[in-house]
Write a structure and sequence with these properties.
There is one protein chain. The protein is an alpha+beta fold. The chain folds into two domains: 4-164, no CATH class; 177-401, no CATH class. 40% of the residues lie in helices and 16% in strands. It contains eleven helices and 15 strands. The protein has helices at residues 10-35, 47-60, 62-65, 69-87, 203-218, 224-258, 269-272, 287-299, 302-312, 357-370, 373-376; strands spanning 4-5, 103-107, 115-117, 122-127, 131-136, 147-152, 158-164, 177-182, 188-190, 195-196, 261-265, 317-320, 345-347, 354-356, 399-401. Strands 1, 2, 6, 7 and 15 form a five-stranded antiparallel sheet that branches. A five-stranded mixed sheet has the order 10-9-8-11-12. Helix 5 (203-218) runs antiparallel to helix 6 (224-258). The N and C termini lie close together (5 Å).
Length: 402
């Protein structure tokens, strides 16, 4: 994935922020309409009806009419998709959008001339009601772009994201299978013996973040000082997220190029990172410790790594049952909790096998796939899984190139 950093002028920034405000306003209106729905009542208005109501609102309110109809309609389209995902049990229920959180809007029906290159490092994209906005041409823009999304992060940076159908990385054809064990101390341990860690903030940056958070706790709400401290915290957090995203891209590309089949644990990350605070009647225990563990899991990039592997190694990622993979000896297959002596050491109580605990788990994950290698390994000559149609084109998902 690749995002492009926008470089708008101050006047363009104000226009882009106005688009974000219109998209947020329309989205929140749609949320309010559907908030009145209860079982047994008539369902809320659909996308077509909401577009008709939007036309009436634009005719009545000049400030809304001054914005882009494309931006406002696509906010309704995004809400309709969010509702469909919620009822499909794949996403949470769409909620209110707050100013400064998840700011952005989408533009569709992009023409061939709406994106152009000015020099080796500068490009331009045409935004309705704004004009040509420059962005950093850090890599070639994919062809056939039909839509894009412009976003503003908490650090105050504007980005443009083009929607394209990604190309899968060709199968190496070596027949190699790798197991990947994801952890907190070690972000990804491979069955080959490699230990990969997602980068975080440096020690000096962590110390500065602690000082900033203390300052933020003492600052008065609504003050200019608090706003400045929040912006400084956001910049550090954005730096950490950028490093993690870069690590995920490089790691997933490397794995997709080296191995035919990639085995990972089928982890329910949303359930694993759920808060332990409980309720007033039944308060949780060790809430602070669980919150720290949740932050460590999210900082390791577990979910993003597997998603990018599925995009780049389409049809070659296998998810297996994670139970007992860290308690089973890879040499004799004896399972015992006592064999996991520490975070890093695995010492089998039956045969005395000694190995790194994460690598031992990764080998167990790999062996689960090798036991069914006839149906899962990828043929070197054709790139299709054995036992399936050799000329079948893998299904590709529409991906926002970020």
């Amino acid at each position: 994935m690749s995002r492009y950093r926008l470089s708008p002028t101050p006047a363009q920034e104000r226009a882009l922020a106005e688009h974000c405000g219109h998209a947020r306003f329309v989205w929140n209106l749609a949320v309010e309409q559907h908030a009145h729905w209860r079982p047994g009542r008539r369902s809320g208005p659909g996308f077509a009806e909401q577009c008709r109501q939007l036309t009436q609102a634009r005719a009545e309110f000049g400030w809304l009419r001054g914005g882009s109809i494309v931006v406002q309609q696509q906010a309704l389209k995004d809400f309709a998709q969010a509702v469909a995902n919620f009822f499909g049990n794949t996403h949470r229920k769409p909620t209110w959008r707050k100013r400064g959180h998840g700011e952005g809007f989408r533009i569709v029906a992009v023409k061939a001339g709406d994106v152009r290159r000015l020099s080796r490092t500068v490009g331009e994209v045409k935004v309705p009601k704004v004009g040509w906005v420059r962005f950093r041409w850090s890599r070639a823009v994919p062809g056939g772009v039909k839509s894009y999304r412009i976003t503003l992060d908490r650090a105050g940076r504007w980005h443009v994201t083009f929607a394209v159908i990604p190309e899968s990385i060709p199968v190496p054809g070596t027949g190699e299978v790798v197991g990947v064990d994801r952890g907190v101390a070690v972000s990804a341990a491979l069955s080959t013996g490699e230990l990969l860690c997602a980068p975080t903030l440096r020690e000096a940056e962590k110390a500065r973040l602690v000082r900033l958070l203390r300052k933020l706790a003492r600052a008065k709400r609504g003050s200019n000082r608090r706003a400045k401290v929040k912006a400084a915290v956001a910049k550090l957090k954005a730096r950490e997220a950028d490093r993690r995203r870069d690590w995920v891209e490089k790691t997933s590309t490397d794995l997709a190029r080296r191995f035919d089949v990639i085995a990972v644990e089928d982890l329910k990350i949303g359930n694993m990172t759920r808060s332990a605070k409980g309720t007033v009647e039944a308060p949780g225990r060790n809430v602070r410790q669980k919150a720290g563990l949740n932050r460590s899991i999210l900082a390791a990039g577990w979910g993003r790594l597997v998603r990018r592997l599925e995009h780049k190694a389409c049809g070659r990622v296998r998810k297996i049952d994670p139970r007992y993979t860290s308690q089973t000896c890879n040499a004799c297959k004896h399972m015992a909790r006592e064999s996991r002596e520490s975070q890093a050491l695995f010492l089998c109580v039956a045969c005395g096998w000694r190995d790194n605990a994460d690598i031992n788990a990764a080998k167990n994950i790999r062996d689960t796939i090798k036991d069914t290698a006839v149906g899962h390994t990828v043929a070197a000559r054709g790139g299709a899984p054995s036992g399936g149609p050799a000329n079948r084109e893998p299904q590709r998902d529409l991906l926002l190139v970020m």
